[in-house]
Amino acid sequence: MNKISMTVLAAACALVLSACGTSGAPEHAVDGGNATVPARLPDGNIEAGRTLATKGEGSTAACVSCHGAEGNAPLADMYPKIGGQYGDYIAHALQAYRSGARSGGTGEVMAAQAKGLSDQQIADLAAYFASVPPQLRDLQNAN
Questions:
Q1: Using alpha carbons only, what angle is made at residue 131 by residues 93 and 56, rounded to the nearest 5 degrees?
Q2: What interhelical angle do 87-99 and 107-114 show, nearest 10?
Q3: Taking the C-alpha atoms of 82, 136, 108 and 91 in order, what is their torsion angle to the nearest 10 degrees?
């Protein structure tokens, strides 16, 4: 490859990489109906999340009503274990349920629960469930 081709290639790569670092990202991007980028959330408070998860608030039932103690003792197989799950995953899932971008399975139940949650409450729940010792399992080896 000659010197001019290498220079053009390097410039093209630099241009592509610079586009990846935009600071004006949307609060919540949706691509084809699927939430792809969670909205930026405030820092979560583990104790506030524990209270919300165990007691509920307003129209939001306690998470433990379906997911069980610490999110690790689901009352039925249809409810996943969420204790010890990554906080980012919990936050993103709750935001997607709240916006209606995530549905299917127990999606209608979760959408009804998440609809009343504020960004702070989502951050608090995510912080709490991330702080719980995990008891996650591979569904292939669920026996």
A1: 60
A2: 90
A3: 40
8 A C-beta contact, residue 64 and residue 53 = yes
First to last CA, the chain: 58
Q: Token digits for 16?
A: 């592509």
Tell me the pLDDT tens digit for each residue of 6-52. 554 555 444 444 444 433 333 333 333 444 445 689 999 999 999 99
Separation of alpha carbons 78 and 128, rounded Å:
22
Which helix or strand (DSSP H or E) is residue 93 part of? helix 87-99
Which bin fits 56, alpha (ψ -120 to 50), beta or left (φ > 0)?
Answer: left
Q: How far is the C-alpha of 83 from the C-alpha of 53, rounded, in Å?
A: 11
User: Rounded to a whole number, what is the largest CA-CA distance in the chain?
Assistant: 68
Residue 29 β-bridge partners: 37
Residue 3 CB contacts under 8 Å (≥ 6 apart), including other chains: none
pTM for the full model? 0.69
Nearest to 86 by CA among 71, 106, 99, 68: 71
